[in-house]
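User: Can you help me understand a structure? I only have the sequence.
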Amino acid sequence: MSSKRVGKAAPQFLEDDPSTGYLPGRTWPVVRYGLVSLAIAAVMVFAIELIVRGDFAGTVAFFLQPLKPGWTTIVVFALILIGLDAVLGRSHQSLMIVAPLTLSLAFVGHQKSHYLGDPLYPTDFLYARQIFALLPLLVRDRPMTALAMVVGIVAGLSLLVYGWRRWRRKVPALSRKGRLARLTLAVPLLAFFVSIMDYATFSWTRDRLQIIPIMWDQKENYASNGFALAFALNVPMAHVSAPPGYSDKAIAAIDRTDVTASMPAEKPDIIIVMSESFWDPTKLPGVTITPDPIPNVRALRSGSMFSPEFGGMTANIEFEALTGFSNAFLPAGSIPYQQYVRTPTPSLATFLKSQGYRARAIHPGTNWFWNRGAVYADFGFNDFKSEETLPPLQKRGPLASDAAMTDEIISEADASDEPVFFFAVSLQNHGPYEPNRYYNPTHTVQAPISQWARESLLSYAEGSADADRGLERLVEWAKKRSRPTVIAFFGDHLPPLGPVYVETGFLKDNVAPRKEPTPQAALEHHQTPLIIWSNQSGPVENLGAVSPAFLPYHILTTAGITHPYYTGFLGEMRERYRVVDRNLLLTPTGEATPDWARQKEIDPTIRDFRLLQYDMMFGKRLAAPDFFPETVDKIVAHMTHMS
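Assistant: Let's start by predicting it. Here is the structure, written out as tokens:
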């Protein structure tokens, strides 16, 4: 009997099946179908917002406000369900595709917001491979959570397959007329909604629907417009529009300094170490760590690097430090390494290589992480030593040690007859910081916090101490060299310590807000130690907090090197601003301008900075002969990077 039931064909046309009430010419079934679709969409949108927000009262409040984007989202979802039903040929079967997909995105969005402080952006999927590469660390940190997720995924997929097959057998197929009617309704209306999603242009309809793109504050954008609409509004951000006024004349009008490219008689080696998540953990309230985990950094400190990120997104700090360009002029949530670097792009490596340097990048991780292999080639590096090409490095904890990376830098520098430019990115102190990460801790942590948080902080402190010893070793080695050597050392961002911040009272949440309430709070949550040191003159002093985009200026100046952009243009910019961030401008005297991008009048120097960056990254490269002469006639696209 069971085999007969399985083999029994479902009724062919829903509209012509009297048992379902779908009789030709009757309006009630059509109305009923529409109301059910709206109800399903409403429940689904509510569930999405509840998952993302993690707050039932806040989710209810989002929908109780009339004429708010939540209701528009429900209508859009209903149209998607109706249109997809027509494609699949069964009423409401689209729910089996749309619900798992959107609810999964909502869960991922909640997790990203919880751990990194940022919403989920469409461009995040460009580096999904990085997330999978970090899964072993996450599994080690929370094995039961990982197991529950695997069980849930397997069970969910099994249930979905079962439900799909059962639905196809039990629910009659739609007639050709019914499918056409659904498409006729859904497709034009969905096309209309897509047309009003371009946040760069004003839309009267979008304004009436109270969908207000808040692209300068993405956290508020997602809170105000809801997850689905805010996510859709961010789709166009992969395209960077030309700044207002961009033209040949505007580029020609940018002041040219009289600075030209020049080198000292003896070219110094330049070594930049960007230390993963390096920070001073003794800044946590009520925390005492003995002995001091970073005594060498404290003794040599030049100032602070003001990170545009918190707890992650290392590639964005790299981008600024190597190019002298700013993330402040790119769409919020974008990752230049993933989206925009597709042709040779001017960088410190490009310039120094043109002056006879061997430009080398070192990172003990994989070469595809953050798309580094392709990007470093476009930046002009001669070679990139990664996990694939480095000799096996000794590990400290689960990752390659800072000591082993330091050995590699020293070995390669000593073996080179030509001057070298090293850009090294460490890996050892990458989060998460699971308790008992190191079997032989040399520090103790005293703090009125939970045992888990204290042990997690100890794991981080041990890694910071290793990074500090790596700096000490580089400096002691360079002191004995006859060749001039400049060393720059800084942390890319504050570490993702999560609950440690909350328990110590350093932060209210696991991560700092993207938009800080005061400039002082921004400085507190985004500064990492910065050292610029020369074996000829010692440490540079009193730099204060500087954006990574200004690091090329300070490093080359210390090395006695000049360049029309890196020391000329950026030098003049540095006279006016020491921090250029998406949400904050800070002058050398500490005068702050929050929300500068929303003001009608923007400082002409900032305008020129933005125009010059756009011209070199996306425009006609009209500024190249004057500001980046080493790049002229060398622009050839790497088509293999487009895949």
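Now, to help you interpret it: Residues 451-479 form the longest helix (29 residues). The chain has two domains: 18-237, 263-559. Let me know which part you'd like to focus on.
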